[in-house]
Predict the structure.
Amino acid sequence: MSWTLAQIWRHPIKGIGAERLDHAGLQVDRPLPLDRAWAVLEEGGEGGEGWRACRNFLRGAKGASLMAVTARVEGDVIHLSHPARPDLSIDPDTQDGAEALFAWLKPIYPTDRRAPAALIKAPAQGMSDAPFASVAVLNMASLRALSQKLGQDLDPRRFRGNLWLEGLAPWEEFDLVGKRLRIGAAELEVIEPITRCRATEANPDTGRRDAGTLAALQDGWGHADFGAYAMVRRAGRVDVGDEVTKL
């Protein structure tokens, strides 16, 4: 039995910008390269080194408009776009870059939320919502099933996934927990389902909440899970169109 790798996405700044890719080089015990490699710490958030929980950062669950940010990485520069803001290019490792990002975000982030305090470089494991070096594996058939339940087409960007698979039955990704997948030259172990938050309610074209994704998941399937976290166990390149095989 085999499936196909349909889409690859990364999110260079946690919660702020999605970038579609044609290929990626996966490394053992690492996230997809440059995925959640930076994060915007909010005022009052936990300082220090290492991974920290999502509650410490700006993200789409707190400010739906962030879901409409798109990203593109070129060398040391991240290019960001939003329908309500002029395009912005920053070097995230500089103070000037951080200050420019905070000023750019101010008009599109709720004033009743904690303001940005620092743009931090994530540890090697990345800064996903999981406390390990995760790669999010999602199922196109599950997306269609949820879209049908809601009566509207859902953009994959709502779910901030990395690797989207085509050819599985709806929700079959949950049956893969504890199993290994070969995708292109890489191998991944599926670890656990991803429990979702209100970020998925926002339309990534507009940055406005327009879909009751969490309520639909609970009503239709009795949970709020969508997709699964995996970890890379064998390094290798993955390309859109690659065969995906359960080992």
